[in-house]
């Protein structure tokens, strides 16, 4: 029943993935919420929603990080989302 | 029976592994959090049991102006600008409880609690702290005893609970229809653990989801504040204005003094006349002696998820500064309150609390069966002896820690009655009894070399201790179970009864575990 090790990443990559999943998850969650928030006229809806949606987005990112075929994919996705969201925040703020 | 489509092989294996690893690491802390949380659900209902001074009928009419005056007379250096809260008496706790701040000799501010008897208005300094039973278990529930980081550990446990829950759902997805009602005690241990883990885990999914999100929120709210702060240009107050508007009112410490405040009793009456089916649960006074002072009244009908309201009155002229009407709340300001309500079950009444309690205990079983399954699935020739020994030791330590916590719960009930209420430094002694008792039973459990003997040892210990709890309350306070039933002291009587039933059930299971039950080979 235990997972077949041939599908798992090696131990160095594993630790990097754990770290990326937790930290990257938080960065992605915060950026996403701030990004949507800057687009909204009434920011209170975003604050009220972030109370529960943050943990769900964070978890989703963690699962994505573990499912990704390579660690590069996770890093590029995170960098990509940062590069996409920050201009929006700077422009609309 | 039909099977659901499983995940692709690679994803299944990866998620399975993350589910297993996060689950094993979490299992220790999650069991403590869930079990102590289950007991803490009833921390108000337990109050009359833990404090024999509270076993009287409360008077319904309380003079709140007098309460404030008594507090002023009995407190050495009361700081009114630090806020002051009054909790009206209720069925579970007949005292009027006050939370206030005092200035110590060195100028340091100390938060204090006191109880006032609503019949005689006698002031009991620090009484709530002296009865530390539920307080200790409640604090252990969010790991408060670990300095500084404890609350964050519990918050992250909530976050990873969501993670373990979602990965578990995806991994066991293909078996859910088939194993939906697979409750059986036949076959190999591996099968029993697997079926219990999957079927009960699926049934308790909603409660795990509620506690994952709300627990993470309570522990990690500081992390959520950062993005919101950014949106409001770093203004903390504006964020509070959205989430808890009554906290965003600004006060001036230097405002002129107010000679004649509005009567608190009149404010109380205003609320009880407007909402006849609601109970006022808290009166919060800010800047009480100043012109800009307010009184915030919180009230609830104990039923609906939106069935609570908040009204802030100006103390100068009784005008309403902020009002949140029950069942008419705005979305943004109700999500936080809603999650807190779902967490503490302050809606739906006692019956719902009992359902929560049962579901949380089943969740404890899901956690334990997951740990057992992990060991049982690895107990074969694919693994070296060293690996198998490691798996066995981890599970053995897990079982001993968690079972001894259950026994230690009975110990703190006994300790609460053994140490007299008047004793100086009582909290320290009760906590020492609890934690050293937990450690002792944990270490004694480790002396046993098989899962079955650890279980049997803890069952008989729990049985003896539980009999002790039901017995010691009658012995020390004179309120034996049958006497308490006769005197309508139901909170006391039922708690004794539940302990007696626990004692009998664990004794029966202890006797029923046969020597030749399916062996857990090592």
Structural features, described:
The complex is a heterodimer of chains A (93) and B (522). Chain A has one domain (14-92). Chain A is 81% helix and 0% strand. Chain A has helices at residues 11-39, 44-67, 71-92. The N and C termini of chain A lie far apart (52 Å). The mean pLDDT of chain A is 90. By secondary structure, chain B is of the alpha+beta class. The model of chain B is unreliable at 518-522 (pLDDT under 50). Chain B is globular. Among the domains of chain B are: 53-130, no CATH class; 378-522, no CATH class. Chain B has helices at 9-40, 47-50, 64-74, 127-130, 133-141, 150-171, 189-203, 205-231, 236-243, 264-274, 331-344, 349-377, 385-418, 426-446, 451-477, 481-486, 490-512, and strands at residues 84-87, 96-103, 109-116, 123-125, 279-286, 294-300, 308-314, 320-324. The chains are: A mainly alpha (93), B alpha+beta (522). Chain A binds chain B through residues 1-4, 6-8, 26, 29-30, 33-34, 37-38, 43-52, 54-56, 58-59, 62-63, 66-67, and chain B through 9-18, 20, 158-159, 162-163, 166-167, 190, 194, 212-213, 216-217, 223-224, 226-228, 230-232, 239, 242-243, 331-336, 339, 377-378.
List keywords for this structure.
heterodimer; A: 93 residues; mainly alpha; 81% helix; 0% strand; B: 522 residues; alpha+beta; eight-stranded antiparallel β-sheet; 57% helix; disordered C terminus
Q: What is the tally of beta strands of chain B?
A: 8
Biggest sheet details of chain B: 8 strands, antiparallel
Rg of chain A from C-alpha positions? 16 Å
- Biggest interface pair, counts: A-B, 33 and 43 residues
Strand order of the largest sheet of chain B: 4-3-2-1-5-6-7-8
SSE run of chain A: HHH
**Computed structural class of chain B:** alpha+beta
SSE order of chain B, one letter for each helix or strand? HHHEEEEHHHHHHHEEEEHHHHHHH
| Distance linking N and C termini of chain B | 35 Å
Shape of chain B: globular
**What count of helical segments of chain B does DSSP give?**
17
Class by alpha and beta content of chain A: mainly alpha
Fraction of helical residues of chain A: over 70%
Please identify the oligomeric state: heterodimer
Low-confidence segments of chain B, given as residue ranges, are 518-522
Computed CA radius of gyration of chain B, to the nearest angstrom: 26 Å
How much helical structure, as a percent, in the residues of chain B? 55-70%
Q: Could you tell me the strand content of chain B as a percent range? A: 5-15%
């Amino acid at each position: 029943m235990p997972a077949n090790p041939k599908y798992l990443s090696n131990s160095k990559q594993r630790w990097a993935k754990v770290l990326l999943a937790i930290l990257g998850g938080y960065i992605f969650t915060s950026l996403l919420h701030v990004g949507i928030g800057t687009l909204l006229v009434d920011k209170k809806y975003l604050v009220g929603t972030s109370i529960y949606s943050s943990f769900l987005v964070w978890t989703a990112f963690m699962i994505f990080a573990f499912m990704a075929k390579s660690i590069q994919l996770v890093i590029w996705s995170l960098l990509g989302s940062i590069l996409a969201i920050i201009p929006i925040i700077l422009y609309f703020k | 029976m039909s099977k659901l489509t499983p995940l692709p092989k690679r994803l299944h294996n990866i998620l399975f592994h993350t589910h297993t690893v996060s689950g094993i690491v979490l299992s220790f802390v999650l069991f403590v959090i869930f079990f102590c949380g289950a007991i803490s659900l009833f921390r108000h209902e337990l109050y009359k049991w833990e404090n024999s001074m509270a076993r009287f009928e409360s008077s319904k009419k309380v003079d709140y102006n007098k309460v404030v005056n008594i507090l002023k007379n009995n407190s050495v250096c009361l700081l009114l600008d630090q806020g002051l809260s009054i909790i009206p008496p209720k069925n579970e706790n007949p005292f009027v409880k006050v939370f206030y701040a005092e200035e110590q000799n060195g100028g340091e501010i100390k938060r204090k609690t006191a109880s006032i008897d609503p019949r005689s208005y006698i002031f009991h300094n620090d009484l709530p702290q002296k009865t530390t039973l539920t307080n200790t278990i409640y604090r252990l529930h969010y790991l408060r005893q670990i300095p500084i980081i404890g609350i964050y550990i519990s918050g992250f446990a909530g976050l990873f609970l969501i993670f373990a829950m979602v990965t578990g759902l995806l991994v066991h997805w293909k078996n859910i229809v088939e194993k939906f009602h697979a409750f059986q005690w036949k076959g190999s241990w591996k099968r029993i653990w697997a079926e219990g883990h999957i079927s009960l885990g699926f049934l308790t999914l909603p409660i795990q989801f509620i506690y994952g999100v709300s627990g993470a929120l309570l522990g990690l709210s500081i992390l959520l504040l950062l993005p919101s702060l950014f949106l409001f240009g770093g203004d903390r107050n504006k964020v509070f204005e959205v989430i808890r508007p009554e906290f965003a009112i600004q006060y001036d410490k230097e405002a002129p003094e107010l000679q004649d405040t509005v009567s608190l009793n009149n404010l109380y009456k205003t609320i009880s006349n407007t909402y006849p089916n609601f109970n006022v649960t808290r009166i919060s006074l800010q800047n009480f002696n100043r012109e800009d002072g307010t009184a915030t009244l919180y009230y609830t009908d104990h039923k609906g998820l939106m069935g609570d309201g908040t009204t802030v009155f100006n103390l100068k002229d009784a005008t309403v500064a902020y009002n949140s009407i029950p069942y008419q709340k705005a979305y943004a300001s109700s999500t936080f309150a809603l999650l807190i309500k779902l967490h503490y079950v302050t809606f739906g009444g006692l019956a719902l609390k009992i359902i929560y309690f049962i579901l949380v205990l089943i969740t404890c079983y899901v956690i334990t069966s997951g740990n057992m399954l992990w060991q049982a699935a690895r107990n074969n020739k694919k693994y070296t002896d060293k690996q198998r020994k490691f798996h066995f030791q981890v599970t053995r330590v897990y079982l001993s820690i968690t079972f001894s916590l259950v026994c230690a719960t009975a110990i703190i009930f006994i300790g609460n009655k053994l140490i007299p209420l008047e004793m100086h430094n009582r909290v320290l002694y009760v906590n020492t009894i609890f934690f050293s008792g937990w450690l002792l039973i944990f270490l004694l459990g480790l002396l046993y070399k098989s899962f079955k003997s650890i279980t049997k040892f803890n069952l008989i210990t729990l049985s003896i201790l539980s009999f002790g709890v039901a017995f010691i309350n009658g012995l020390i306070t004179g309120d034996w179970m049958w006497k308490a039933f006769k005197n309508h002291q139901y909170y006391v009587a039922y708690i004794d009864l539940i302990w007696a039933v626990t004692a009998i059930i664990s004794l029966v299971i202890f006797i029923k575990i046969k020597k030749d039950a399916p062996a857990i080979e090592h």
